[in-house]
Amino acid sequence: EAQVTQNPRYLITVTGKKLTVTCSQNMNHEYMSWYRQDPGLGLRQIYYSMNVEVTDKGDVPEGYKVSRKEKRNFPLILESPSPNQTSLYFCASSPLPPVETQYFGPGTRLLVL
Amino acid sequence: AQKVTQAQTEISVVEKEDVTLDCVYETRDTTYYLFWYKQPPSGELVFLIRRNSFDEQNEISGRYSWNFQKSTSSFNFTITASQVVDSAVYFCALSSSLNNFNKFYFGSGTKLNVKP
Known about the structure:
The complex is a heterodimer of chains A (about 110) and B (about 120). Chain A has about 110 residues and is mainly β. Helix content of chain A is about 0%, strand content about 50%. Chain A has strands spanning about 5, 10-15, 20-25, 30-40, 40-50, 55, 65, 75-80, 85-95, 105, 110. In chain A, strand 5 and strand 6 form a beta hairpin. Chain A is globular. Chain B has about 120 residues and is mainly beta. Chain B has strands spanning about 5, 10-15, 20, 25, 30-40, 45-50, 60, 65-70, 75-80, 90-95, 105, 110-115. The mean pLDDT of chain B is about 95.
């Protein structure tokens, strides 16, 4: 089944404790992207990647890191999480844009205390 | 600047009513795509439609229709004869050739409540 998976789905952590949210796709897509969703703000793009070792900033990259060492994986790294990074995070993948749509993962709900 | 505005934060209707969700976008690009996504209470994001900037023809898909007007920079979404299953948050989004279509700008979403 074609899908984008994210792990963990739910995470509670404390300020400053490094964490990684994994994202994996099995569709051989070149393009992958991370978004955060906050009430009243919709989805905002954090980082995106056009291929292995090619990444670029979205609108809200501060406090996040990404890497794309393999085509299928695009982990999101929070090196020192803060409470303002409490959010719902979505990973997405697609062939290189422009395409009809991105395929979104199920989301990761993060709470930073 | 590129921006999508969904001014309606929340709309409540009674089943079988028609409802229109507004989307206004800003871009200085002439080549762009507009999208609508649905996020039901279960949380996943469901693609509904993509429209390119050169195609102003209205689109109809069952009870759903979309009205794209470049003159007013709007891409509105109408649900005819709404049903309880239409209850969700709906997002409008934009990508353009300015960023090689790699960047996506979402509106803040409109929460639609359809009551039986």
